[in-house]
Amino acid sequence: MTSASTVLVAGASRGLGLGLADAWARAGWNTIATARDPAHATALQAVAAKHPGRVVIETLDVEDADAIDALRARLDGGRLDVLFVNAGIFGPRHQDVHRVTRDEIATLFVTNTIAPLRIARRFADRMAPRSVVALMTSQLGSIGDNTSGGYDLYRASKAALNAMVRSWCATLAGPDITVLAMHPGWVRTDMGGANATLSVETSVKGMLAVIDAHRGTGRHGFVDHAGRTLPW
Questions:
Q1: Phi-psi region for residue 111, left (φ > 0), alpha (ψ -120 to 50) or beta?
Q2: Predicted model pTM
Q3: Would you say 98 and 46 are in contact if contact means Cβ atoms under 8 Å apart?
């Protein structure tokens, strides 16, 4: 990765998004990091303070289409070398199709499926040559690899995201933008839990290396933090 490049991390207030923003700033990148409520994103504020002049915190509610348009307008004229969309929630803990409410399923799919594609599509014309758009997904969204079941609602939202990523990629003209649906591994975050096998730092280091390796390839793929190709 080269210095003076610019990355936008959508969803950077905690966990993997926070780790990504910190790592890119440490590498010398101009880092735009979003949070729903920057005033209360104390960990992200600490990252910005640690890297003076390298981190700009922007307000973004990923579920709000107008907020996405407003962010695009505020960043008018800027070019992005990487866009990483980190929006995602687990949904209702019960993951039961018989118990889930209309509002719960709507929130899950808007956050995990619709919002990431809205962001990617709205910023596609702001991507620099040899740029990468990465969208955080999950191996649990793989239909080909689903041999165990479970986590049905979350799986469905990520499988839908993967399908929408592939559909969007089919409409992209030219090889300038690389698009990666990225599985971070099982990571010790609020969502992954304390028993997960990877630290945030390990996952982030791997994802940055994978993104760097794919810059300029024009590839559209589903990969994990170690660079392995996953079945859709």
A1: alpha
A2: 0.95
A3: no
- How distant, in Å, are the alpha carbons of 9, 15, 30, 37 from that of 87? 10, 11, 20, 14
Nearest CA among 131, 223, 117 for reference residue 177 = 131
- What amino acid is encoded at 157 in this protein? S
Q: Which residue has the tokens 């089919």?
A: 170
Over residues 116-123, the mean pLDDT reads: 97
The token duo for 110 is 């808007």
3-state secondary structure of 12: coil
CB atoms within 10 A of CB 186: 17
**171 sits in which H/E element:** helix 152-171
The first and second tokens of residue 191, run together, are 């969502």
Phi/psi for 33 (5° steps) reads: -125, 130
pLDDT at residue 223 above 90? yes
pLDDT of the residue at 154: 97
Q: What is the mean pLDDT of residues 59-88?
A: 95
d(CA 230, CA 223): 5
Kindly state the percentage of the chain with pLDDT values over 70. Answer: 99
Angle between helices 65-74 and 115-123 (to 10 degrees): 30
- Cβ contact 133:161 at 8 Å: no
CA gyration radius, the chain? 17
Q: Which amino acid is at 41?
A: A
List phi, psi (to 5°) of 195.
-90, 0
Distance CA 182, CA 224 (A): 5
CB distance 5 to 29 below 8 Å: yes
Query: Nearest Cα to 207, choosing from 192, 228, 177?
Result: 228
